[in-house]
Design a protein that fits this description.
This protein is of the alpha/beta class. It is built from twelve helices and twelve strands. The protein has two domains: about 160 residues, Glycogen Phosphorylase B (Rossmann fold, 3-Layer(aba) Sandwich); about 160 residues, Rossmann fold (3-Layer(aba) Sandwich), CATH 3.40.50.2000. Helix content is about 35%, strand content about 20%. A six-stranded parallel sheet has the order 3-2-1-4-5-6.
């Protein structure tokens, strides 16, 4: 198992990380690597438990960085992505490390997490929790940073963190759609979605994703096909979890198509309206658009065709048959 520890902060934090490595080294089958700042290399280079040390000139205080240091960071992240780590660990809990861990794209992006009541939450910048695959929640009565490091190590060694994600081959394969977008101009008509569901439904019910406050609306709107769908209108964490069993995802130019890409959904179809799809489409995504139906395309959500703030010729011109053909060709 390969683990990369992010230690990009201060001299004191490096010493704390060394103690964490000491706790973790009880597992001799683990390869421990470090990603740190150039000036901190000396702390780790003679450590018997650390195999590889990678460093950057980038500073987490972003205003103090030059363009060179930013490019250096992305160059190192690109290199680290190729190492295929099992875990990238953020043992501080700040959102900046969570972003870096996400970009490195390990099997598990792991970070500690504090409740609002925990004193340590006053020392870090919280956020971007959705980029983390697994949180190690620190108890409110655990105040000492060394106790925290031991607690994280125990979670890893006792396999409370599942290092190997389930293979999709072991999961039920599902078809899912997300028929709602934040802007009306991106919406495909509900009649089309209903017709599509009828034509692609086989034996397994189709997941229809929506937000919790949209669940009743979806239930009423899709009443004609309720026997063919499962409506999932939960929080974002449940949405991301459910995406892990999806084989084919069909959505609009919205958050959901990017989430499907993040969760490695094998087949992704994006229905694009007024935007330039080359800007927003995730890699390996099939884009369906009827841009040739409108001479103003792309208008970037500023209506010029139907003279209405919510109606666009481009998205309305996409036919159910267009989606069916895209699926068959995949």
């Amino acid at each position: 198992m390969k683990i990369l520890i992010l230690s990009l902060r201060s001299f004191g934090d490096c010493i704390v990380t060394l103690e964490f490595i000491k706790y973790l080294s009880a597992n001799t089958n683990m390869q421990i690597d470090i990603f740190t700042k150039n000036e901190f290399i000396k702390f780790f280079q003679n450590n018997q438990y650390v195999k590889n040390i990678y460093s950057t000139t980038f500073l987490l205080s972003i205003k103090r960085n030059s363009l060179y240091s930013l490019l250096n960071l992305f160059k190192k992240i690109a290199m680290l992505r190729k190492q295929k780590y099992d875990i990238v660990l953020n043992n501080i809990g700040d959102f900046r490390e969570q972003i870096i861990g996400f970009l490195i794209n390990s099997k598990m992006n792991v970070s500690i997490r504090f409740s609002k009541k925990h004193p340590f939450s006053n020392l870090i910048r919280k956020g971007f929790d959705l980029l983390v695959d697994k949180h190690v929640d620190i108890p409110n009565d655990m105040l000492n940073v060394y106790d925290m490091q031991k607690y994280i190590a125990e979670n890893i060694l006792q396999k409370k963190i599942i290092l190997k994600k389930k293979s999709r081959a072991d999961m039920p394969t599902k078809v899912a759609i997300h028929p709602i977008a934040g802007m009306k101009c991106r919406m495909w008509e509900y009649e089309n979605w209903i017709d599509l569901i009828k034509k692609i439904y086989k034996d397994d019910r189709i997941i229809v994703f929506c937000a919790p406050n949209e669940k009743e609306h979806i239930k009423n709107t899709f009443s004609a096909v309720l026997d063919k769908i499962d409506i999932v209108g939960e929080n974002v964490d449940i949405f991301l979890q459910k995406l892990e069993c999806v084989k084919l995802f069909i959505g609009l130019d919205s958050f959901s198509i990017h989430a499907a890409y993040h969760k490695n959904v094998p087949l992704k179809v994006m229905l694009n309206g007024a935007n330039n799809a080359n800007i927003w489409m995730p890699p390996n995504t099939k884009v369906i658009e009827a841009k040739h139906e409108c001479k103003f395309h792309p208008c970037y959500n500023i209506p010029k065709c139907a003279k209405k703030s919510f109606e666009y010729t481009c998205i309305k011109s996409i036919k159910v048959q267009d989606v069916l053909e895209a699926i068959r060709n995949e």
